[in-house]
Each structure stands twice: as C-alpha cells, then as structure tokens.
Amino acid sequence: MRIAVDAMGGDFGSSPLVQGALQALKERDFALVLVGDEQVIAPLIPAECKQKVEIVHCTDFITMEEGATSALKRKESSIYLAIEMLKNKQIDAVVSAGHSGATMSLATLKIGRLKGVSRPAICTLMPRIDAQKSLVVDAGANVDCKPENLFEFGIMGHEYATAILNYPKARIGLLANGEEECKGNEMTKAAFDLLKKHPSFIGNIEGNNIFDANVEVIVCDGFVGNVVLKTSEGVADSIIFLLKKYIKSSPIGIFGALFMKNVFKKLKKQIDYAEYGGAPLLGVDGNVIICHGKSNAKAMKNAVFQAILAVENNVNDKILSALEKYKI
Amino acid sequence: MRIAVDAMGGDFGSSPLVQGALQALKERDFALVLVGDEQVIAPLIPAECKQKVEIVHCTDFITMEEGATSALKRKESSIYLAIEMLKNKQIDAVVSAGHSGATMSLATLKIGRLKGVSRPAICTLMPRIDAQKSLVVDAGANVDCKPENLFEFGIMGHEYATAILNYPKARIGLLANGEEECKGNEMTKAAFDLLKKHPSFIGNIEGNNIFDANVEVIVCDGFVGNVVLKTSEGVADSIIFLLKKYIKSSPIGIFGALFMKNVFKKLKKQIDYAEYGGAPLLGVDGNVIICHGKSNAKAMKNAVFQAILAVENNVNDKILSALEKYKI
C-alpha cells in the first residue's frame, strides 16, 4: 500500500506533516510518498526510515489565501502532483493539510466522482459522550445543496461509518430545527422524504444530538455543517478558556486543579480533533483525506491511519453498491 | 407599567413561572398580571404581594404537542388572553414560557408587525468569554428566509443590543462558512450586499465568533440559528457530563474538585441560560418575551426584567426609526 502525504501547505510548515507521517510509518506497514520540497523534507527523515519513504520533489504549493480554482493550473504544486499520482494509480490514497478547497477541486475534477454521486462531501468526525465518534456530512464542501445531495451524503456517511468506524448499525439523522417530521426548511423536508428509503434513517435530529450518542451519521448541507463545526469548537474553546481563567484567579482553585490534571487530560483527549485525524472526502473515485491546516503530528498520523483503513476496507466499493441499491 | 406573565404551559407547571414573576416584583416596581388558573396561582401568592398582582383567570392553554395554528382558535387560552390584552394596550409586555410557536403566531397575527418588518424574529442571548452577551437573530422563527429578512434581522438586533444591552457600538456579523466576503450560500451572499448599507456591519463571521467577543449581533436564518443554539447546548452539556464522569471515576479527582467548587459555580453562572431570561420576539408591534419551556424561577425573573427594559427603552420605536433610515 502506498500513501502520499502532501508535505506542503499546512499552517505550520512541513515539519509536523512529515513527523506525523513518519510516526504512522512506525506503527503500520506501508510505503510513504512525501510530496514537497526535498531540501526541506529530506533532513526530517531519519536514516532507518529512508527505505520506506519516497520523496516526490516540488517547491510550489497552494497557499490558504489563494483561490481554489487556481490549483487547477498549478501543475507543479504538491497537491496537484499528489492527486495526479492517485489518478494514475501510482498511490492508493492522498492525505493533505493544505488548501482544502484546492484539494477538493482537484480531486473532483481530475479523479472524478463515483458513479451515482452528484456532489462529493467532506465527512468530519465529531466527539461524543460515549467516546465513540459521530460523522457530519457535509462539513463544508457544498454550501448550496439539493435534497438529492443530502440523500447521497446520508448513504456515503452510512457506508463510511460501517466500514471504518465499525458501527454494526449506524443510524442516519437529518439535522433540523426540531425532531418532528414537520420540522426543517424546504430543502431538508424534501431530503427527509428521500432519506426515508434508507432503513437506517431515524428522522430529524437536533444540534445537541450530534454529541449524545443517539445518532452516528448527521446529514446537512456544507454551510450548516461548517457552522456546526466552528460553533462546537467555539463553545469548547470558550469553556476551557473560562475554566483556566477562573482557576488562575483563585489560589484554592489552583490547588484543586493540581489534583484534576488527569481529569483535564482525559477531557482534552476526548474532545481533541487531533485524535481524529482528518476528514475523508467522500464521493470521489479515490481515497482523499483532508486535514485541518493547523494539524499537528498526531493529527497527521491519525489521518494516515484513516487513509490506510479506507484503502483496506474498500469504502468506495461499498459506497458504490449502496448508491446503486438505494438509488432514487 | 403592567407586565403579563403567562402562568401556564411551561414544562414544569405554573409554580416556577409564578415564583419567578414574584421575585421580579420584589426587585422592581411594576404591576404584575398573571394569566392562568386562579385556583393554582392564587395560593402561590403571599399576602404582602397581593396588592401588586392581578390574576386573569383561564384554564385552557396550548400544550407543547399541539400545532401553533390551533392557538388562533383557542380564545380562552392563557397566551391568547395575554396577547389580546397587549393588543388592547391593557398591558405593556407579555412573558411566556409556553408553546413558542403559538406565542409567535398569535403575536404576529393579532398584534401585527412593525412597519418595515417582513418577518418577526426570535432574538436569543448567548454567553461569551467576556461575560457580556451576544445576540443570535433569528433563533428559530423563520426557517426559510430571503436576503431582505436577514437584513431586517440585523437592524432589529442592532437596535436591541444598543438599547437593552447597552453596547455603545454593537457590531453586526453575518453567520457564514468563512470570514471572506466570497464565502456564504446564495442567500447569505445576497444578504451580505444588503447589510453593507449598515455602518455597524463587519461582514461574515464564523460559528466560533459567536462566543469570542468580536461581534455582538449574529445574523442568520432561523434554521441555522436553531441548529447553533442546540449545538452550543449540546457541546456545553457534553463537556460538563464528561468532567463529572472523569471526576467521579478518580478519588484524587473528587478531592481536587472539592477545591474547585467556586470555579465550577462561576462557570455555570456564565453559561447558564437562566441568567439571560428569555428571547424577545423582535418585529411585532408590542413587547413579547419568549422563554424556554424548561424555564426555572430565575429565568422567569430575568425574562420579566428584559420585558421591563424593553418597555422603558422604547426598543420598538428605535427599531422603527432604524428600519426607516436604512430601508432598502
């Protein structure tokens, strides 16, 4: 198995991206292809790993400030080269923490969509109270959606949850402003009617259900999905900020907190995005994992594991079958 | 000043609703009108308060399971009577923890909209890290919106934030999937162009900005607003659930937590919805405060204070002037 990691374009340079990929290599057996500036990358690779690592040299990459469409012309950029290799079956999966719009555009246009998929979607893993994960599909790829798109998101998310997260029975919920069938906007109401065809569809769910372990696959458009992700991050960050502030402002609080280190560590681990890795781009005819620009080494390592699991479990074949089975 | 409190229809019966209203009466000078079953309400009122409290008797109320439209025919229900009194200028404001859809429908259809308002909106207060509050408009009244609706939500929220929350310069942000002007869905992009007219508009904001004290008025449609509210509640509840779980699972954690009681109390106070009271229904020609069905006495007390502030500060006159000034 050959996994390509885009070693350019993350917010913190190549180092955490390469470190994370190398950590994955220590734990799992695969061939690692690092795409990026050889002068930067090569010194980061210890001698004992060199045999398992190939560097595809390039110096260009898409910065976060650039438009996604410019990626299509930048044939010497790291993500272009990585996607090109995936298209040519030289590698089995791509992991990138670079410009996510660029990765999506290139993957969709160069590799193409799976048969039956009208729009690929980003599938983000969210923490929940039982230490398992739920999936939000779409987490940002498609801001304006049609009911059919949401229907496909549900099917793709269900197959991913079953194949990769090992849920024996993943439930699909449609994110809405109330649980009753009459709730929703015009678009989600029409999506509700389509999703009813799927035996795992449990109806409308609300924002709090994302975390309460009563649903595994949360379907929404990419605008709402992005708002949900950012809102969740904002609440978690605010609570941690306030906890720290109140602890620091009281000597007795500081004393108490010394005994709570393990508690805070466990909490941090459970809500830390780095534990989850990246977000698969579902619906393209290849395995592409999109990572947060701020990914640290741990996040990259876990993203590489996700890529390996996607390849091993033939997620895309399962999505293809499900789309064929439930087609509208 | 006369404030009517709908003493029926909350999730926990009349008691917390009446208690909260009476607590408000102890701290502020106004006449309280309680609308509901006299047999239930009268025993809850201590002798020393009786002079300031009037009971408008009725036994019917709209349950949470009923449709909002049925409220229009239920002329002997508590919320119908309260809204009718507001329409007839017998009272200055209505506070209700009953069926919010029923309250909205009755207020909109019987009292009517302010001139220049195409859709009334629910304006929910959210906690933020600086212990001030931000406003989300619309938090659930209108699931399918046009750009003009969002423009009006921004203006109404801005006037409310200035008049009631005392922000000398409240900033208006449009909730989107990215900060750049190019981000947003078709509807929010068009709303962006309209909101540009307002000098306090700062452009697109993201979900995390709701809490970071960089924006006061967050504009979105009611579908997204409801998802934001429920997601925020879900994240906060989950973190508190996990904290408790991890503390309980470790003796040393339990010991440390004993010294953290004040820290947790401060945190709870800052993120407790009851501190905020209710959500004003902006855009109707009268003061209506919609409360959570689960409102406790403290929430009801604060909701009554909100109603008093709205009357004292003539919020609706200010909204009228602003809508006239910035009209499209």
Automatic annotation (TrEMBL), chains A, B:
GO MF annotation list: phosphate:acyl-[acyl carrier protein] acyltransferase activity
Places the protein is found: Cytoplasm
InterPro entries, per database record: FA_synthesis, Phospholipid_synth_PlsX-like
A GO CC annotation given for this chain: cytoplasm
SUPFAM superfamilies recorded: Isocitrate/Isopropylmalate dehydrogenase-like
GO biological process terms on file: fatty acid biosynthetic process; phospholipid biosynthetic process
EC number(s) stated in the UniProt entry for this protein: 2.3.1.274
Record keywords, A-Z: Acyltransferase, Cytoplasm, Lipid biosynthesis, Lipid metabolism, Phospholipid biosynthesis, Phospholipid metabolism, Transferase
Catalytic reaction equation(s): a fatty acyl-[ACP] + phosphate = an acyl phosphate + holo-[ACP]
Annotated pathway: Lipid metabolism; phospholipid metabolism
Database matches in Pfam families: FA_synthesis
Oligomer and partners: Homodimer. Probably interacts with PlsY.
Function: Catalyzes the reversible formation of acyl-phosphate (acyl-PO(4)) from acyl-[acyl-carrier-protein] (acyl-ACP). This enzyme utilizes acyl-ACP as fatty acyl donor, but not acyl-CoA.
Protein name in UniProt: Phosphate acyltransferase
Provenance organism: Helicobacter ganmani
